[in-house]
Amino acid sequence: MYIPKHFAEHDQAEILRFIAAHAFGTLVTVEAGAPYASHIPFLLEQGEPLTLSGHLAKANPQWQHLAANPQVLAIFQGAHAYVSPTWYAGAGVPTWNYTAVHVYGKVRVIHEAEWLREKVERLSAQYEGSRETAWIPAYPAKMLEAIVGFEISIESLQAKYKLSQNRSAADQHHVRQALEASGGENERGVAALMAKRQGE
Length: 200
Fold this sequence. Notes:
Elements: H1 12-21, E1 24-31, E2 34-41, E3 43-45, E4 51-57, H2 62-68, E5 71-83, E6 95-110, H3 113-128, E7 147-162, H4 169-182, H5 185-197
Antiparallel strand pairs: 1-2, 1-5, 3-4, 4-7, 5-6, 6-7
Helix pairs in contact: 4-5
């Protein structure tokens, strides 16, 4: 990922928080020279080593890519918003503010039923929450045969928080005000990140 130095995020704790908060990501592999991507929820394990785990439908050929070439990329995206040059005091061009994390690592494919069951039940508990009507995992064990698990040992983390840091303090303030006024969820999310970065 292209990351100019003023947009780079190096705080590992912040990067891991970001992944956990935006855990529905994109798993990217390369097969026969062509990229292939699946959009799936991940589980972050903050032990040693750091790992990401998930599962794919067995009908999805990507798990075979994982078995053949263990080097993978997982992409996580956060808030993003269009930035108009009319919000600057000086000259400028249209751009986009956004947050993204790329995770590079080596993957292993997992077929063990107990490992798959534990991960599926953790994902369910995480997203069902404590609602009275929360789904309690109850399904035929044979259904686990329809999925394939994987675990990525994280080798590299790259994070880009593009939040107008290359503009003057006044321009950053104007951008944040305009985003706050727009009313969109993504715009408000970017504005909140900008405010945090500016210590406000």
